[in-house]
Amino acid sequence: MFSKFGKREEARIFYNTQTINTLKVLLSSAVAAALVFGFAGCKTDEDEDGIITQIEKGGYTNDTDVEYKRAYISTATKHLAADCEITIDTKKSTGKYTMGYIFNQIGKGSDDKPYSFCEVGVRYYNKKPQYFISYYTGVRGKKGTVNDFSTNAGDFDVSESETEKWGVEANSAKEYEIVKSWTDIPAGSYTLGDDGILKVYIDLTVLSGETEITKDNYGEYLKKGTITEVDDEDEDGTTTKVKRITNGSYKVTLKSSSDAASGTSKVISNSNTLESFVVQEAKLGKYAMVHKDATVSGTWNFPKDSYIKAAYAPDSDIIIWEQEIHN
C-alpha cells in the first residue's frame, strides 16, 4: 500500500468523528496536515508492480510477456464526486494504453458483491486525443476468486467467445458504453502544447433529476431529503453510512481546463446503464492499462477544491469539502 503517513486507522477515526459530531472547533494546520487523506492512503490497491507510480514519475513501459498490464488504486475515503485532470506526455507515450479515472466505485470486489463503477479513459493515439466513458458491473477484485483487475485481458468484461483471445476465463462483468472506445475528443475539449503535453480536464457534476448538487445548495437538498443516508459495506466487512442522491446521475464534461466555460458532455444515469444505477459517496481511483511494448507517461491531478464529501454535522449546516489530494 502506498501509505504516506502510515496512519490509516487514525484517518478512519477522524473521518467518522467528523461525520457524527457537530464541528465547532477547527483543527490546527499541523494536526489537519497529519490527517489529510490521499491516494497515498489508498484502501483498494491493485497495483502491486507500482505501474501508476512509474507512469507519474517519468513513464512505464510494458516490456513483459504479458499482453496487457493493468493497475488501479483508490482513495481510502468516499466522495460523491471530484474533478480529475489527466495529462499525457505524448512525446514519451507510444502504443496502446489507457489512463483512466474511476468514480462511483461501489461494492466489495467479492464474488457475491462485485464492484460497479464508472470510468473515463483517455489516450493519445495516431496523433489524436481519444476517450471513452463506460459503466461496469460485476467486476471482481482481490476479494474475488478471480481478480478482474489483474487479468491478461484488454477489458474488465470477458465473454465466453473472448476466452481464447485473452487467454483467461470468462467472467460476469458487463460494460455499458456511454461513449464508445475510442472516440476522438472534439477540439476545444483538451489542450495540446508545443511541449507535447496533452491535458484533458474531466469535470464531474452530480445531478438529482435536472438539479445540479453544488456546495451552495448541498445543505438545502439534504434537509429536503433529496440527499439520503444508506448503509454501505466495505471490503473488510465494515458497514458505514454514506450519502446517496435521489434520482441521481453524473454529467461528465471534458474541458480544456478547469475554468473553461464549456466542453464535451455526457450523462451517466439509469437510462443508459441499469435501472438500479445509483449515485452515492464512493471511492475514486486512478486506473491504467498498458499494452505490450507500449509506453505511457502522465499524471492524474485531483483539484482539492473539487471534492464533494459529506462529512457534516447532522445538526449543523457546516459542510466539509475534503481537501484530500495535493498533487
Please give the structural blueprint.
Layout: H1 8-20, H2 29-35, H3 51-56, E1 60-61, E2 68-74, E3 84-89, E4 97-106, E5 115-125, E6 128-139, H4 163-166, E7 174-184, E8 191-192, E9 197-208, E10 211-213, H5 218-224, E11 227-233, E12 239-245, E13 248-255, E14 264-268, E15 279-280, E16 283-291, E17 295-296, E18 298-301
Antiparallel strand pairs: 1-17, 2-16, 3-9, 3-18, 4-5, 4-16, 5-6, 6-7, 8-9, 9-10, 9-13, 11-12, 12-15, 13-14
Write the H/E string, N to C. Answer: HHHEEEEEEHEEEEHEEEEEEEE
Report the end-to-end length measured between terminal Cα atoms: 18 Å
Q: Mean of the pLDDT scores?
A: 80
Supply Rg. Answer: 19 Å
Give a short account of the largest sheet.
7 strands, antiparallel
Instruction: Please state the structural category.
Output: mainly beta
Describe this structure in words.
The structure is a single chain. With 327 residues, the protein is mainly beta. The protein has 5 helices and 18 strands. It has helices spanning 8-20, 29-35, 51-56, 163-166, 218-224, and strands at residues 60-61, 68-74, 84-89, 97-106, 115-125, 128-139, 174-184, 191-192, 197-208, 211-213, 227-233, 239-245, 248-255, 264-268, 279-280, 283-291, 295-296, 298-301. The strands form 4 sheets. Strands 3, 8, 9, 10, 13, 14 and 18 form a 7-stranded antiparallel beta sheet that branches. Strands 2-16-4-5-6-7 form a 6-stranded antiparallel beta sheet, with no helix packed on it. The longest helix is centred in the first third of the chain and has 13 residues, at 8-20. The protein is globular, with a radius of gyration of 19 Å. It starts with 7 loop residues before the first helix and ends in a 26-residue tail after the last strand. Residues 1-42 and 310-327 have low confidence and may be disordered.
